[in-house]
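Annotated sample (chain length 278).
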Amino acid sequence: MRDVDTFAARTPTLPPATHTNSYALGGREVLLVEPATPYEDERREWLAWARGLAAQGRTIAAIAVTHHHADHVGGARFFAAELGVPVWAHAEAAPRLGDVPIARRLADGDVVRLDGPEPMEIRVLHTPGHAPDHLCFLDEAQGVLVCGDMVAGVGTILIDPREGDMAVYLAQLERLAALGARVALPAHGEPIDAPEALFRRYVAHRLGRERRVLEALEGAGEGGATLDGLLPVAYGDTAPALWPIARLSLEAHLIKLEREGRARRGEGGWRRASRDDA
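Output written by the structure step:
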């Protein structure tokens, strides 16, 4: 990949991931994506990496964040101050980033133009579902997609119903699959070759899980079942140690099914919707 550099920093992320990848995009003007780490020792290394770009004749134009989660923005304010550069993010990130000033609010379809021997144009994609402010960054000329937490090279992606939306997430995965990107650069794990296939596997996996959720609802009968009652059935193939995280995904699936008229919740918990509910 031309004019793309990576630095992996230790962050407080969900296991089995332990690090978050930051990316430097551009040959002369550079956009830094993911000011991730809150840890002092890792920040020193991150700054050395960023400042080392100057030795290559490159200038940092801005720091961009894919979304507001702590393992992606833990160094945002610190790095911006140390490097004297602005922070760019989606408008939905601003109220979630506290004291981090947002100099430019990026929107879907924006194009970031970076000067260089071979200028780079990066298209901004607003891809909510995992988080309402989630952004991806696409270098269309090279087919390189910085995809944040839409998929991962290690671990999985949590859809937390408190701020995520399973239906929207699946729709955005389909959108990313249709881009024809050559490589995807995730926040966690190694670069992903043939990303279209991975995006579609993610969709297939989630829809397969949805079928198990529906089977669990069928087994619950008309009386319904609580989340904790459904969990061992819908996620029986998942280690119990991971059930606290799985419980959030289960709720996200149920909310999607409820909106589609395929599940109902009541005093006894969740149940499969019937024709009488119409």
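Annotation: Residues 170 and 203 are 6 Å apart (CA to CA).
Annotation: The helical segments are 40-52, 70-73, 76-83, 166-177, 195-220, 227-234, 243-259.
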